[in-house]
Amino acid sequence: MSQTLALIVVVPMLGAAVAALLPAGRLPWLLATAVSWYMLAAAAMLAGQAMDLGVLSYAMGNWEPPFGIEYRLDPANALLALLISGLAAVVLPFAGRSLASEVPEEKSPYLYGALLLFLCGQMGIAVSGDAFNIFVFLEISSLATYTLIALGRDRRALTASFSYLIMGTVGATFFLIGVGLLYAMTGTLNMADLALRIPEVAASRTVHTAYAFIVVGVCLKLALFPLHLWLPNAYTYAPSAVTALMAATATKVAIYLLIRFIYSVFGADFSFGEMPTVYLLVPLAVVGLLSTSVVAIGQDKIKRMLAYSSVAQIGYMVLGIGMASATGLTAALLHLFNHALMKGALFMALGCIAIRFGTSRLEVFRGLGRRMPWTMAAFVAGGLSLIGVPLTVGFISKWYLVLAAIELGWWPIVAVIIVGSLLAVVYIWRVVEVAYLQTADDMSRCEAPLSLLVPTWVLILANFWFGIDTRLTIGIAERAAAMLSGLTP
Amino acid sequence: MSLFAHYNYHLAIILAMIGFYTMISRSNLVKKVIGLNVFQVSVFILFISIGVHEDGTVPILREGYEIYSNPLPHVLILTAIVVGIAVTAVALALVVRIREEYGTVEEDQVQAQDEEPGPT
After folding, report:
1. pTM exceeds 0.90, yes or no
2. Which of B76, B91, B119 sits opposite A162 (nearest CB)?
3. CATH of the domain at B32
4. Fewest Cβ atoms nearer than 10 Å: which of A118, A239, A478, A483?
Protein backbone atom coordinates (compact mmCIF):
# COMPACT_ATOMS: atom_id res chain seq x y z
CA MET A 1 0.00 0.00 0.00
CA SER A 2 1.33 3.37 -0.95
CA GLN A 3 2.27 5.71 1.88
CA THR A 4 1.75 8.86 -0.17
CA LEU A 5 -1.70 9.50 1.27
CA ALA A 6 -0.17 9.82 4.75
CA LEU A 7 3.01 11.56 3.59
CA ILE A 8 1.10 14.38 1.94
CA VAL A 9 0.09 15.46 5.47
CA VAL A 10 3.17 14.33 7.39
CA VAL A 11 5.76 16.02 5.14
CA PRO A 12 4.43 19.58 5.65
CA MET A 13 4.02 18.87 9.38
CA LEU A 14 7.66 17.81 9.77
CA GLY A 15 8.70 20.54 7.34
CA ALA A 16 7.12 23.10 9.66
CA ALA A 17 9.25 21.96 12.58
CA VAL A 18 12.40 21.97 10.43
CA ALA A 19 11.61 25.39 8.96
CA ALA A 20 11.26 26.87 12.45
CA LEU A 21 14.77 25.63 13.31
CA LEU A 22 16.50 26.95 10.19
CA PRO A 23 18.46 30.21 10.32
CA ALA A 24 16.56 33.30 9.22
CA GLY A 25 16.90 34.19 5.56
CA ARG A 26 16.04 32.38 2.38
CA LEU A 27 16.42 28.81 3.60
CA PRO A 28 13.01 28.49 5.31
CA TRP A 29 11.39 29.81 2.17
CA LEU A 30 13.25 27.33 -0.03
CA LEU A 31 12.19 24.47 2.22
CA ALA A 32 8.54 25.59 2.23
CA THR A 33 8.54 25.90 -1.55
CA ALA A 34 10.08 22.45 -1.98
CA VAL A 35 7.47 20.96 0.37
CA SER A 36 4.63 22.64 -1.52
CA TRP A 37 5.92 21.23 -4.82
CA TYR A 38 6.18 17.79 -3.29
CA MET A 39 2.56 18.15 -2.12
CA LEU A 40 1.46 19.07 -5.63
CA ALA A 41 3.24 16.08 -7.16
CA ALA A 42 1.79 13.76 -4.51
CA ALA A 43 -1.70 15.21 -4.91
CA ALA A 44 -1.56 14.82 -8.69
CA MET A 45 -0.50 11.20 -8.36
CA LEU A 46 -3.18 10.46 -5.75
CA ALA A 47 -5.87 12.22 -7.77
CA GLY A 48 -5.00 10.06 -10.76
CA GLN A 49 -5.29 6.92 -8.65
CA ALA A 50 -8.52 8.10 -7.05
CA MET A 51 -10.06 8.70 -10.47
CA ASP A 52 -9.07 5.18 -11.56
CA LEU A 53 -9.96 3.26 -8.42
CA GLY A 54 -12.78 5.41 -7.04
CA VAL A 55 -11.65 5.48 -3.40
CA LEU A 56 -8.19 5.28 -1.83
CA SER A 57 -7.98 4.33 1.82
CA TYR A 58 -5.07 4.41 4.24
CA ALA A 59 -5.28 2.99 7.75
CA MET A 60 -3.17 5.14 10.10
CA GLY A 61 -0.86 2.97 12.21
CA ASN A 62 -2.43 -0.06 10.53
CA TRP A 63 -5.52 0.13 12.74
CA GLU A 64 -8.44 -1.16 10.75
CA PRO A 65 -11.07 1.47 9.97
CA PRO A 66 -13.59 2.28 11.42
CA PHE A 67 -11.67 1.74 14.70
CA GLY A 68 -8.50 3.55 13.70
CA ILE A 69 -8.11 6.81 11.86
CA GLU A 70 -8.66 6.38 8.17
CA TYR A 71 -7.34 8.66 5.45
CA ARG A 72 -9.64 8.48 2.51
CA LEU A 73 -9.44 9.99 -0.92
CA ASP A 74 -12.27 10.03 -3.41
CA PRO A 75 -12.85 12.38 -6.37
CA ALA A 76 -14.22 15.17 -4.13
CA ASN A 77 -11.19 15.19 -1.82
CA ALA A 78 -8.90 14.73 -4.79
CA LEU A 79 -10.18 17.97 -6.31
CA LEU A 80 -9.59 19.73 -3.01
CA ALA A 81 -6.13 18.23 -2.50
CA LEU A 82 -5.14 19.35 -6.00
CA LEU A 83 -6.50 22.81 -5.26
CA ILE A 84 -4.65 23.25 -1.95
CA SER A 85 -1.33 21.91 -3.16
CA GLY A 86 -1.57 23.60 -6.57
CA LEU A 87 -2.26 27.02 -5.07
CA ALA A 88 0.46 26.51 -2.46
CA ALA A 89 2.95 25.55 -5.17
CA VAL A 90 2.18 28.79 -7.05
CA VAL A 91 1.83 31.16 -4.10
CA LEU A 92 4.97 30.06 -2.24
CA PRO A 93 7.45 31.09 -4.98
CA PHE A 94 5.60 34.42 -4.98
CA ALA A 95 5.76 34.60 -1.18
CA GLY A 96 9.57 34.69 -1.06
CA ARG A 97 9.93 38.24 -2.36
CA SER A 98 6.53 39.48 -1.27
CA LEU A 99 6.80 38.41 2.38
CA ALA A 100 10.43 39.53 2.59
CA SER A 101 9.19 43.07 1.94
CA GLU A 102 6.34 42.86 4.46
CA VAL A 103 7.64 40.78 7.38
CA PRO A 104 10.97 41.36 9.20
CA GLU A 105 13.61 38.85 8.13
CA GLU A 106 14.31 37.49 11.60
CA LYS A 107 10.76 36.15 11.74
CA SER A 108 11.08 34.15 8.54
CA PRO A 109 11.70 30.70 10.15
CA TYR A 110 8.48 30.99 12.19
CA LEU A 111 6.62 32.55 9.29
CA TYR A 112 7.33 29.62 6.97
CA GLY A 113 6.85 27.17 9.82
CA ALA A 114 3.35 28.59 10.33
CA LEU A 115 2.69 28.52 6.58
CA LEU A 116 3.63 24.86 6.39
CA LEU A 117 1.48 24.06 9.44
CA PHE A 118 -1.37 25.83 7.72
CA LEU A 119 -0.87 23.66 4.62
CA CYS A 120 -0.60 20.56 6.80
CA GLY A 121 -3.92 21.38 8.50
CA GLN A 122 -5.68 22.13 5.23
CA MET A 123 -4.42 18.97 3.58
CA GLY A 124 -5.30 16.98 6.71
CA ILE A 125 -8.92 18.15 6.55
CA ALA A 126 -8.98 17.28 2.88
CA VAL A 127 -7.78 13.68 3.20
CA SER A 128 -8.90 12.61 6.67
CA GLY A 129 -11.90 10.35 6.92
CA ASP A 130 -12.29 10.73 10.68
CA ALA A 131 -14.56 13.42 12.10
CA PHE A 132 -12.49 14.11 15.23
CA ASN A 133 -9.25 14.10 13.29
CA ILE A 134 -10.80 16.77 11.08
CA PHE A 135 -11.49 18.91 14.15
CA VAL A 136 -7.83 18.66 15.15
CA PHE A 137 -6.61 19.60 11.66
CA LEU A 138 -9.15 22.41 11.55
CA GLU A 139 -7.59 23.84 14.69
CA ILE A 140 -4.02 23.29 13.46
CA SER A 141 -4.69 25.25 10.29
CA SER A 142 -6.70 27.90 12.13
CA LEU A 143 -4.00 28.49 14.75
CA ALA A 144 -1.43 28.85 11.98
CA THR A 145 -3.75 31.32 10.23
CA TYR A 146 -4.14 33.46 13.36
CA THR A 147 -0.39 33.86 13.69
CA LEU A 148 0.03 34.52 9.98
CA ILE A 149 -2.61 37.27 10.00
CA ALA A 150 -1.04 38.84 13.07
CA LEU A 151 2.23 39.23 11.10
CA GLY A 152 0.62 41.93 8.96
CA ARG A 153 2.36 45.32 9.05
CA ASP A 154 -0.67 47.30 10.18
CA ARG A 155 -1.38 47.02 13.91
CA ARG A 156 -5.02 46.39 13.07
CA ALA A 157 -3.84 42.96 11.89
CA LEU A 158 -3.65 42.08 15.59
CA THR A 159 -7.25 42.91 16.37
CA ALA A 160 -8.38 41.27 13.12
CA SER A 161 -6.52 38.13 14.12
CA PHE A 162 -7.96 38.23 17.64
CA SER A 163 -11.55 38.50 16.51
CA TYR A 164 -10.98 35.73 13.96
CA LEU A 165 -9.54 33.63 16.77
CA ILE A 166 -12.63 34.10 18.94
CA MET A 167 -15.09 33.40 16.14
CA GLY A 168 -13.02 30.63 14.58
CA THR A 169 -12.69 28.82 17.90
CA VAL A 170 -16.41 29.09 18.56
CA GLY A 171 -17.01 27.63 15.09
CA ALA A 172 -14.61 24.76 15.63
CA THR A 173 -16.06 24.08 19.10
CA PHE A 174 -19.56 23.96 17.63
CA PHE A 175 -18.26 21.42 15.17
CA LEU A 176 -16.81 19.45 18.09
CA ILE A 177 -20.15 19.49 19.93
CA GLY A 178 -21.82 18.11 16.82
CA VAL A 179 -19.22 15.37 16.45
CA GLY A 180 -19.63 14.47 20.15
CA LEU A 181 -23.40 14.17 19.84
CA LEU A 182 -23.02 12.01 16.74
CA TYR A 183 -20.58 9.80 18.60
CA ALA A 184 -23.05 9.47 21.47
CA MET A 185 -25.72 8.26 19.04
CA THR A 186 -23.68 6.04 16.74
CA GLY A 187 -20.52 5.09 18.61
CA THR A 188 -18.26 5.87 15.66
CA LEU A 189 -16.19 8.77 14.37
CA ASN A 190 -15.31 7.39 10.96
CA MET A 191 -17.24 9.41 8.40
CA ALA A 192 -17.99 6.51 6.06
CA ASP A 193 -19.21 4.50 9.05
CA LEU A 194 -21.24 7.45 10.33
CA ALA A 195 -22.95 7.66 6.96
CA LEU A 196 -24.07 4.03 7.36
CA ARG A 197 -25.27 4.39 10.94
CA ILE A 198 -26.97 7.76 10.96
CA PRO A 199 -30.09 6.61 9.01
CA GLU A 200 -30.93 4.18 11.88
CA VAL A 201 -31.12 7.00 14.40
CA ALA A 202 -32.00 9.87 12.06
CA ALA A 203 -35.33 10.61 13.72
CA SER A 204 -33.79 11.43 17.10
CA ARG A 205 -33.53 14.94 18.48
CA THR A 206 -29.84 14.40 19.25
CA VAL A 207 -28.94 13.85 15.59
CA HIS A 208 -30.93 16.93 14.60
CA THR A 209 -29.02 18.96 17.17
CA ALA A 210 -25.71 17.53 16.00
CA TYR A 211 -26.57 18.51 12.44
CA ALA A 212 -27.41 22.05 13.49
CA PHE A 213 -24.17 22.45 15.46
CA ILE A 214 -22.00 21.07 12.65
CA VAL A 215 -23.64 23.17 9.94
CA VAL A 216 -23.47 26.40 11.95
CA GLY A 217 -19.90 25.70 13.09
CA VAL A 218 -18.69 25.03 9.57
CA CYS A 219 -20.62 28.03 8.21
CA LEU A 220 -18.70 30.23 10.68
CA LYS A 221 -15.47 28.86 9.27
CA LEU A 222 -16.50 29.35 5.66
CA ALA A 223 -17.79 32.88 6.37
CA LEU A 224 -21.36 32.44 5.19
CA PHE A 225 -23.28 35.70 5.51
CA PRO A 226 -24.03 36.81 8.29
CA LEU A 227 -21.21 34.87 9.98
CA HIS A 228 -18.58 36.52 7.77
CA LEU A 229 -17.66 39.42 10.07
CA TRP A 230 -14.14 38.12 10.77
CA LEU A 231 -13.21 37.80 7.11
CA PRO A 232 -12.88 41.34 5.67
CA ASN A 233 -10.46 42.54 8.35
CA ALA A 234 -8.48 39.31 8.38
CA TYR A 235 -7.97 39.41 4.60
CA THR A 236 -7.25 43.14 4.55
CA TYR A 237 -4.51 43.24 7.18
CA ALA A 238 -2.75 39.91 6.60
CA PRO A 239 0.47 40.00 4.53
CA SER A 240 -0.30 39.86 0.78
CA ALA A 241 0.94 36.35 0.09
CA VAL A 242 -0.87 35.03 3.16
CA THR A 243 -4.10 36.63 1.98
CA ALA A 244 -3.67 35.07 -1.46
CA LEU A 245 -3.18 31.62 0.04
CA MET A 246 -5.94 32.00 2.62
CA ALA A 247 -8.50 33.43 0.23
CA ALA A 248 -7.75 30.65 -2.22
CA THR A 249 -7.81 27.69 0.15
CA ALA A 250 -9.03 28.28 3.73
CA THR A 251 -12.70 29.00 3.06
CA LYS A 252 -12.73 26.41 0.26
CA VAL A 253 -11.75 23.68 2.69
CA ALA A 254 -14.64 24.70 4.95
CA ILE A 255 -16.99 24.60 1.95
CA TYR A 256 -15.78 21.08 1.25
CA LEU A 257 -16.50 20.14 4.88
CA LEU A 258 -20.02 21.50 4.55
CA ILE A 259 -20.57 19.49 1.37
CA ARG A 260 -19.07 16.39 2.96
CA PHE A 261 -21.29 16.55 6.03
CA ILE A 262 -24.51 17.60 4.30
CA TYR A 263 -24.27 15.17 1.41
CA SER A 264 -22.24 12.20 2.46
CA VAL A 265 -22.19 11.93 6.28
CA PHE A 266 -25.80 12.93 6.94
CA GLY A 267 -26.93 12.16 3.40
CA ALA A 268 -29.05 14.29 1.10
CA ASP A 269 -32.25 12.55 2.26
CA PHE A 270 -31.67 13.60 5.86
CA SER A 271 -30.27 17.06 5.15
CA PHE A 272 -32.95 18.11 2.72
CA GLY A 273 -35.81 15.81 3.72
CA GLU A 274 -35.67 15.79 7.51
CA MET A 275 -33.98 19.17 8.05
CA PRO A 276 -34.94 22.53 6.46
CA THR A 277 -31.47 23.01 4.96
CA VAL A 278 -32.75 24.61 1.74
CA TYR A 279 -34.59 27.32 3.66
CA LEU A 280 -31.47 28.05 5.67
CA LEU A 281 -28.75 28.03 3.03
CA VAL A 282 -30.45 29.48 -0.05
CA PRO A 283 -31.87 32.71 1.48
CA LEU A 284 -28.62 33.39 3.38
CA ALA A 285 -26.59 32.76 0.24
CA VAL A 286 -28.78 35.09 -1.82
CA VAL A 287 -28.85 37.90 0.74
CA GLY A 288 -25.12 37.53 1.38
CA LEU A 289 -24.27 37.46 -2.30
CA LEU A 290 -26.16 40.66 -3.06
CA SER A 291 -25.44 42.65 0.10
CA THR A 292 -21.70 41.98 0.27
CA SER A 293 -21.35 42.74 -3.46
CA VAL A 294 -22.95 46.13 -2.80
CA VAL A 295 -20.67 46.70 0.21
CA ALA A 296 -17.66 45.80 -1.96
CA ILE A 297 -18.50 48.66 -4.34
CA GLY A 298 -18.10 51.21 -1.57
CA GLN A 299 -14.65 50.16 -0.36
CA ASP A 300 -11.67 52.40 -1.05
CA LYS A 301 -9.15 49.74 -0.03
CA ILE A 302 -9.02 47.29 -2.90
CA LYS A 303 -7.85 44.42 -0.74
CA ARG A 304 -10.93 44.93 1.42
CA MET A 305 -13.11 45.18 -1.67
CA LEU A 306 -11.87 41.77 -2.84
CA ALA A 307 -12.42 40.38 0.67
CA TYR A 308 -16.10 41.38 0.52
CA SER A 309 -16.25 39.97 -2.97
CA SER A 310 -14.96 36.68 -1.53
CA VAL A 311 -17.91 36.57 0.86
CA ALA A 312 -20.20 37.16 -2.12
CA GLN A 313 -18.54 34.35 -4.09
CA ILE A 314 -18.98 32.02 -1.12
CA GLY A 315 -22.67 32.83 -1.54
CA TYR A 316 -22.58 31.27 -5.02
CA MET A 317 -21.01 28.10 -3.69
CA VAL A 318 -23.47 27.77 -0.82
CA LEU A 319 -26.28 28.43 -3.29
CA GLY A 320 -25.07 25.48 -5.35
CA ILE A 321 -24.92 23.30 -2.23
CA GLY A 322 -28.41 24.39 -1.17
CA MET A 323 -29.94 23.38 -4.50
CA ALA A 324 -29.78 19.70 -3.49
CA SER A 325 -29.29 18.55 -7.07
CA ALA A 326 -26.34 16.91 -8.80
CA THR A 327 -25.96 19.88 -11.15
CA GLY A 328 -26.04 22.34 -8.26
CA LEU A 329 -23.41 20.37 -6.40
CA THR A 330 -21.25 20.17 -9.53
CA ALA A 331 -21.54 23.94 -9.85
CA ALA A 332 -20.54 24.40 -6.20
CA LEU A 333 -17.48 22.15 -6.57
CA LEU A 334 -16.49 23.84 -9.83
CA HIS A 335 -16.85 27.28 -8.32
CA LEU A 336 -14.85 26.15 -5.31
CA PHE A 337 -11.94 25.30 -7.60
CA ASN A 338 -12.38 28.20 -10.02
CA HIS A 339 -12.85 30.86 -7.39
CA ALA A 340 -9.58 29.78 -5.78
CA LEU A 341 -7.83 30.37 -9.11
CA MET A 342 -9.28 33.84 -9.63
CA LYS A 343 -9.06 35.15 -6.08
CA GLY A 344 -5.54 33.76 -5.74
CA ALA A 345 -4.52 35.61 -8.90
CA LEU A 346 -6.27 38.85 -7.89
CA PHE A 347 -4.74 38.94 -4.41
CA MET A 348 -1.34 38.18 -5.91
CA ALA A 349 -1.75 41.13 -8.29
CA LEU A 350 -2.47 43.25 -5.22
CA GLY A 351 0.70 41.82 -3.67
CA CYS A 352 2.64 43.10 -6.71
CA ILE A 353 1.17 46.54 -6.10
CA ALA A 354 1.82 46.35 -2.36
CA ILE A 355 5.53 45.70 -2.91
CA ARG A 356 5.78 49.02 -4.78
CA PHE A 357 3.34 51.19 -2.84
CA GLY A 358 2.85 49.37 0.46
CA THR A 359 -0.91 49.73 0.31
CA SER A 360 -3.90 48.90 -1.85
CA ARG A 361 -5.86 52.13 -1.50
CA LEU A 362 -7.72 53.17 -4.62
CA GLU A 363 -5.68 56.36 -5.11
CA VAL A 364 -2.42 54.48 -5.74
CA PHE A 365 -4.07 52.84 -8.74
CA ARG A 366 -4.04 56.13 -10.67
CA GLY A 367 -2.21 55.64 -13.92
CA LEU A 368 -1.12 52.13 -12.94
CA GLY A 369 -2.33 50.85 -16.31
CA ARG A 370 0.78 52.42 -17.80
CA ARG A 371 3.06 52.31 -14.76
CA MET A 372 2.62 48.60 -14.03
CA PRO A 373 1.15 47.24 -17.27
CA TRP A 374 1.67 43.55 -16.53
CA THR A 375 0.33 43.72 -13.01
CA MET A 376 -2.75 45.66 -14.06
CA ALA A 377 -3.32 43.34 -17.02
CA ALA A 378 -3.28 40.44 -14.56
CA PHE A 379 -5.73 42.29 -12.31
CA VAL A 380 -8.09 42.95 -15.23
CA ALA A 381 -7.88 39.34 -16.42
CA GLY A 382 -8.61 38.10 -12.90
CA GLY A 383 -11.45 40.61 -12.67
CA LEU A 384 -12.97 39.35 -15.91
CA SER A 385 -12.84 35.85 -14.51
CA LEU A 386 -14.51 37.05 -11.31
CA ILE A 387 -17.31 38.64 -13.35
CA GLY A 388 -17.73 35.47 -15.37
CA VAL A 389 -16.79 36.47 -18.88
CA PRO A 390 -16.73 33.56 -21.38
CA LEU A 391 -13.34 31.84 -21.88
CA THR A 392 -12.53 32.31 -18.19
CA VAL A 393 -13.16 29.86 -15.36
CA GLY A 394 -15.67 32.22 -13.79
CA PHE A 395 -17.95 31.72 -16.75
CA ILE A 396 -17.87 27.93 -16.49
CA SER A 397 -18.96 27.77 -12.88
CA LYS A 398 -21.61 30.46 -13.20
CA TRP A 399 -22.93 28.74 -16.31
CA TYR A 400 -23.35 25.51 -14.35
CA LEU A 401 -24.98 27.36 -11.50
CA VAL A 402 -27.48 29.00 -13.85
CA LEU A 403 -28.16 25.62 -15.49
CA ALA A 404 -28.81 24.10 -12.06
CA ALA A 405 -31.21 26.91 -11.16
CA ILE A 406 -33.08 26.58 -14.47
CA GLU A 407 -33.30 22.82 -13.97
CA LEU A 408 -35.16 23.43 -10.72
CA GLY A 409 -37.23 26.22 -12.25
CA TRP A 410 -35.83 28.76 -9.77
CA TRP A 411 -35.99 31.76 -12.09
CA PRO A 412 -35.54 34.40 -9.37
CA ILE A 413 -32.24 32.70 -8.47
CA VAL A 414 -31.09 33.00 -12.09
CA ALA A 415 -31.81 36.72 -11.85
CA VAL A 416 -29.85 36.92 -8.58
CA ILE A 417 -26.82 35.26 -10.16
CA ILE A 418 -26.90 37.71 -13.06
CA VAL A 419 -27.36 40.73 -10.79
CA GLY A 420 -24.45 39.50 -8.67
CA SER A 421 -22.26 39.34 -11.76
CA LEU A 422 -23.30 42.86 -12.77
CA LEU A 423 -22.35 44.12 -9.31
CA ALA A 424 -18.95 42.48 -9.83
CA VAL A 425 -18.65 44.44 -13.09
CA VAL A 426 -19.23 47.63 -11.12
CA TYR A 427 -16.59 47.05 -8.49
CA ILE A 428 -13.96 45.78 -10.91
CA TRP A 429 -14.68 48.69 -13.26
CA ARG A 430 -14.03 51.21 -10.50
CA VAL A 431 -10.45 49.97 -10.30
CA VAL A 432 -10.02 49.70 -14.08
CA GLU A 433 -11.27 53.24 -14.54
CA VAL A 434 -8.83 54.67 -12.01
CA ALA A 435 -5.93 52.62 -13.36
CA TYR A 436 -6.39 53.25 -17.06
CA LEU A 437 -8.31 56.50 -17.43
CA GLN A 438 -6.77 58.62 -14.69
CA THR A 439 -3.18 59.78 -14.59
CA ALA A 440 -0.86 60.24 -11.64
CA ASP A 441 1.64 63.06 -11.13
CA ASP A 442 4.48 60.59 -11.43
CA MET A 443 4.02 58.40 -14.49
CA SER A 444 7.36 56.60 -14.36
CA ARG A 445 7.25 52.85 -14.89
CA CYS A 446 7.50 50.80 -11.71
CA GLU A 447 6.63 47.27 -12.77
CA ALA A 448 6.76 44.59 -10.06
CA PRO A 449 9.78 42.22 -10.07
CA LEU A 450 9.59 39.10 -12.22
CA SER A 451 9.64 36.79 -9.20
CA LEU A 452 6.20 38.17 -8.35
CA LEU A 453 4.85 38.59 -11.86
CA VAL A 454 5.60 35.07 -13.06
CA PRO A 455 3.58 33.22 -10.37
CA THR A 456 0.74 35.74 -10.76
CA TRP A 457 0.61 35.13 -14.48
CA VAL A 458 0.79 31.37 -14.02
CA LEU A 459 -2.48 31.60 -12.09
CA ILE A 460 -3.99 34.01 -14.61
CA LEU A 461 -3.17 31.60 -17.43
CA ALA A 462 -4.69 28.80 -15.34
CA ASN A 463 -7.85 30.91 -15.23
CA PHE A 464 -8.00 30.83 -19.01
CA TRP A 465 -6.73 27.29 -19.40
CA PHE A 466 -9.42 25.82 -17.17
CA GLY A 467 -11.95 28.16 -18.74
CA ILE A 468 -11.30 26.69 -22.19
CA ASP A 469 -10.20 23.13 -21.49
CA THR A 470 -12.71 22.06 -18.86
CA ARG A 471 -12.27 18.30 -19.11
CA LEU A 472 -10.21 17.95 -15.94
CA THR A 473 -12.25 20.15 -13.61
CA ILE A 474 -15.72 19.28 -14.85
CA GLY A 475 -14.79 15.62 -15.08
CA ILE A 476 -13.72 15.44 -11.45
CA ALA A 477 -16.51 17.72 -10.22
CA GLU A 478 -19.24 15.72 -11.94
CA ARG A 479 -17.94 12.41 -10.64
CA ALA A 480 -17.55 13.85 -7.15
CA ALA A 481 -21.04 15.31 -7.22
CA ALA A 482 -22.57 12.06 -8.45
CA MET A 483 -20.77 10.10 -5.78
CA LEU A 484 -21.54 12.50 -2.93
CA SER A 485 -25.17 13.07 -3.66
CA GLY A 486 -26.00 9.59 -4.90
CA LEU A 487 -27.96 11.38 -7.61
CA THR A 488 -26.99 10.93 -11.25
CA PRO A 489 -26.39 14.15 -13.19
CA MET B 1 -37.91 11.14 34.44
CA SER B 2 -36.75 13.48 37.12
CA LEU B 3 -35.59 16.98 36.52
CA PHE B 4 -32.01 16.03 37.27
CA ALA B 5 -31.84 12.89 35.13
CA HIS B 6 -29.70 14.71 32.59
CA TYR B 7 -27.94 17.06 34.95
CA ASN B 8 -24.61 16.61 33.12
CA TYR B 9 -26.11 18.08 29.96
CA HIS B 10 -27.73 20.91 31.91
CA LEU B 11 -24.40 21.69 33.48
CA ALA B 12 -22.68 21.72 30.08
CA ILE B 13 -25.34 24.01 28.62
CA ILE B 14 -25.19 26.43 31.57
CA LEU B 15 -21.39 26.59 31.36
CA ALA B 16 -21.51 27.09 27.60
CA MET B 17 -23.95 29.96 27.96
CA ILE B 18 -21.85 31.59 30.69
CA GLY B 19 -18.82 31.38 28.43
CA PHE B 20 -20.71 32.68 25.43
CA TYR B 21 -22.19 35.57 27.38
CA THR B 22 -18.76 36.53 28.69
CA MET B 23 -17.32 36.53 25.18
CA ILE B 24 -20.10 38.74 23.84
CA SER B 25 -20.65 41.14 26.72
CA ARG B 26 -17.12 41.88 28.01
CA SER B 27 -14.94 44.33 26.17
CA ASN B 28 -11.80 43.31 28.04
CA LEU B 29 -9.89 40.99 25.72
CA VAL B 30 -8.50 38.82 28.53
CA LYS B 31 -12.04 38.27 29.83
CA LYS B 32 -13.07 37.26 26.34
CA VAL B 33 -10.34 34.61 26.37
CA ILE B 34 -11.59 33.40 29.76
CA GLY B 35 -15.11 33.21 28.34
CA LEU B 36 -13.79 31.20 25.41
CA ASN B 37 -12.11 28.81 27.86
CA VAL B 38 -15.29 28.31 29.89
CA PHE B 39 -17.14 27.63 26.65
CA GLN B 40 -14.61 25.02 25.58
CA VAL B 41 -14.58 23.36 29.00
CA SER B 42 -18.35 22.94 28.81
CA VAL B 43 -17.84 20.86 25.67
CA PHE B 44 -15.17 18.79 27.40
CA ILE B 45 -17.64 18.01 30.19
CA LEU B 46 -20.28 17.09 27.64
CA PHE B 47 -17.89 14.66 25.96
CA ILE B 48 -16.62 13.09 29.17
CA SER B 49 -20.10 12.59 30.56
CA ILE B 50 -21.12 10.82 27.35
CA GLY B 51 -18.61 8.07 28.12
CA VAL B 52 -19.82 7.41 31.65
CA HIS B 53 -21.70 4.18 32.25
CA GLU B 54 -23.85 3.75 35.32
CA ASP B 55 -22.04 1.47 37.79
CA GLY B 56 -19.18 1.21 35.30
CA THR B 57 -15.59 1.08 36.46
CA VAL B 58 -12.38 2.32 34.95
CA PRO B 59 -11.76 0.57 31.64
CA ILE B 60 -9.13 -1.94 32.78
CA LEU B 61 -9.79 -5.61 32.12
CA ARG B 62 -10.18 -7.38 35.42
CA GLU B 63 -12.11 -10.35 36.69
CA GLY B 64 -15.35 -9.57 38.42
CA TYR B 65 -16.01 -6.39 36.50
CA GLU B 66 -18.25 -6.48 33.48
CA ILE B 67 -19.26 -2.87 32.94
CA TYR B 68 -16.72 -0.26 31.97
CA SER B 69 -16.87 3.41 31.21
CA ASN B 70 -16.08 4.22 27.61
CA PRO B 71 -12.50 5.52 27.52
CA LEU B 72 -12.62 6.91 23.98
CA PRO B 73 -14.32 10.25 24.78
CA HIS B 74 -11.73 10.80 27.51
CA VAL B 75 -8.91 10.27 25.04
CA LEU B 76 -10.56 12.60 22.55
CA ILE B 77 -10.87 15.25 25.22
CA LEU B 78 -7.22 14.93 26.15
CA THR B 79 -6.51 15.97 22.58
CA ALA B 80 -9.13 18.69 22.69
CA ILE B 81 -7.62 20.06 25.93
CA VAL B 82 -4.25 20.32 24.21
CA VAL B 83 -5.91 22.16 21.34
CA GLY B 84 -7.65 24.42 23.86
CA ILE B 85 -4.36 25.25 25.56
CA ALA B 86 -2.79 26.11 22.21
CA VAL B 87 -5.71 28.38 21.36
CA THR B 88 -5.48 30.10 24.74
CA ALA B 89 -1.73 30.57 24.36
CA VAL B 90 -2.06 32.13 20.91
CA ALA B 91 -4.95 34.31 22.11
CA LEU B 92 -2.99 35.58 25.10
CA ALA B 93 0.07 36.21 22.92
CA LEU B 94 -2.12 38.31 20.66
CA VAL B 95 -3.46 40.20 23.67
CA VAL B 96 0.11 40.96 24.73
CA ARG B 97 0.92 42.27 21.25
CA ILE B 98 -2.28 44.35 21.20
CA ARG B 99 -1.34 45.80 24.58
CA GLU B 100 2.13 46.68 23.24
CA GLU B 101 0.71 48.44 20.18
CA TYR B 102 -2.33 50.13 21.66
CA GLY B 103 -1.47 50.38 25.35
CA THR B 104 -4.81 48.89 26.35
CA VAL B 105 -6.69 45.60 26.35
CA GLU B 106 -10.18 47.12 26.25
CA GLU B 107 -11.86 46.47 22.91
CA ASP B 108 -13.77 49.76 22.79
CA GLN B 109 -10.59 51.78 23.42
CA VAL B 110 -8.74 49.83 20.74
CA GLN B 111 -11.54 50.54 18.29
CA ALA B 112 -11.57 54.20 19.23
CA GLN B 113 -7.84 54.41 18.47
CA ASP B 114 -8.30 52.73 15.10
CA GLU B 115 -10.96 55.18 14.04
CA GLU B 116 -8.54 58.08 14.38
CA PRO B 117 -6.70 58.61 11.12
CA GLY B 118 -3.44 56.76 11.60
CA PRO B 119 -0.71 55.24 9.45
CA THR B 120 -2.05 52.76 6.93
Report:
1. yes
2. B91
3. 1.10.287.3510
4. A483
